[in-house]
């Protein structure tokens, strides 16, 4: 499932809508809900639930009543009631599933108290809506410049225009309380429209901006995560992680949401472990826990006067000693409960292909000219050795037998 703007672009490269999970056509949106009750027929005496769910920019969803009984389906653009004027949004849910969503979000099921849907958006409404949406980037830039000039400790993360351009919503983040009364006056004079300020959390800002996490994947909050649960440092302690804020914090500056993913599994595994604060009482002395290994089910204990010598015990043996201590009994020493695991001999790795060498690319390649010169020198040396004994060559060897048989000259 993808929208039309996610098709391939020029030269076969992916185009992408670049909306970070808030796609306008509702095809690849992380907030899209599958209507699994769409094909279900209602009983004859039951009327359909006359309310719809409409999504706006930045994942803002609201419920509206349909007083005119318009035929609406998922993906229709509608004009909804707003204060003041009207707003333009997209229908995301219809029918009985809206009732389920309202119960889930603890909203009263009184349709008469919900705002109204005026009509399906006309082409004029869509043109005005698209026109003000194109101005949002410029308005955000100018608003940041005004906030910096006024010296306010805040960051304007996003801007949202209402569908009829009668109001602008500025989303900002701040660590402390900000007095932006003067800022609102400056915005009203600059943009000539009604101003509304909304503070969002740092996690909401990170999910809206998107990015790549330390795991190499896109941020969970910008792809599929829709609710933000509180994350405590105790989650890192239970998982035996180092309490390093640089490693545990995400791009939002808060603790990573993924610390809660495996927390239940660790808590279930720790149920079989004894309390690390409990001391083991033996005749040799009391021993305190120094380290645990959840995956292997092991604990390391050391006597109070011999902290350098650790003794490895299984969780079952440690619980057995604790039960003896509760009965008033003490074992002789921890060494009686140590079980030496047999050492598994690992097969030596055989390098068949030769691709495990880390320095195979360090040697520089030889130049072709040097290779040619070396080959020439080798050929010349071979040819010289072969021609040294050849009589046709220029360097003829001296023939001693020939000189012996030569007759001496007669000087008489």
TrEMBL record:
Positions of the PSP1 C-terminal domain: 115-200
InterPro entries membership: PSP1-like, PSP1_C
Biased composition (Basic residues): 366-381, 395-412
Region feature (Disordered): 355-412
Name of this chain's protein: PSP1 C-terminal domain-containing protein
């Amino acid at each position: 499932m993808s929208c039309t703007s996610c098709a391939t672009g020029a030269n076969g490269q992916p185009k992408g809508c670049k909306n970070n999970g808030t796609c306008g056509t509702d095809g690849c949106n992380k907030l899209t809900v599958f209507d699994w009750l769409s094909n279900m027929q209602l009983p004859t005496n039951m009327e359909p639930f006359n309310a719809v769910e409409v999504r706006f920019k930045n994942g803002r969803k609201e419920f509206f009543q349909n007083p005119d009984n318009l035929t609406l389906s998922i993906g229709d653009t509608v004009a909804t009631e707003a204060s003041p004027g009207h707003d333009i949004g997209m229908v995301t849910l219809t029918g009985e599933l809206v009732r389920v969503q309202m119960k889930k979000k603890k909203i009263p099921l009184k349709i008469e108290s919900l705002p109204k849907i005026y009509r399906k958006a006309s082409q004029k409404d869509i043109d005005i809506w698209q026109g003000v949406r194109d101005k949002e980037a410029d308005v955000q830039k100018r608003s940041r410049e005004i906030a910096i000039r006024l010296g306010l400790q805040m960051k304007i993360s996003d801007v949202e225009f209402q569908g009829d351009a009668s109001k602008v919503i500025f989303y900002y983040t701040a660590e402390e309380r900000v007095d932006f009364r003067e800022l609102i006056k400056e915005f009203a004079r600059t943009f000539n429209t009604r101003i509304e300020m909304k503070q969002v959390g740092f996690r909401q800002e990170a999910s809206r901006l998107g990015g790549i996490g330390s795991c190499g994947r896109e941020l969970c909050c910008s792809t599929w995560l829709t609710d933000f649960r509180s994350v405590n440092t105790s989650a890192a302690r239970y998982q035996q992680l180092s309490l390093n804020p640089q490693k545990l914090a995400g791009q939002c500056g808060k603790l990573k949401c993924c610390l809660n993913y495996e927390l239940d599994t660790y808590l279930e595994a720790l149920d079989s472990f004894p309390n690390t604060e409990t001391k083991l009482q033996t005749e040799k002395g009391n021993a305190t826990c120094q380290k645990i290994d959840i995956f292997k089910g092991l604990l390391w204990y050391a006597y109070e006067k011999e902290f350098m010598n650790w003794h490895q015990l299984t969780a079952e043996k440690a619980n057995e000693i604790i039960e003896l201590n509760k009965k008033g009994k003490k074992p002789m020493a921890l060494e009686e409960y140590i079980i030496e695991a047999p050492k598994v001999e690992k097969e030596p790795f055989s390098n068949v292909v030769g691709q495990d060498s880390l320095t195979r690319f360090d040697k520089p390649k030889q130049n072709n000219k040097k290779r040619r010169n070396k080959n020439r020198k080798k050929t010349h040396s071979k040819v010289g050795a072969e021609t040294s004994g050849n009589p046709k060559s220029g360097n003829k060897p001296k023939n001693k037998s020939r000189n012996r048989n030569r007759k001496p000259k007669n000087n008489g």
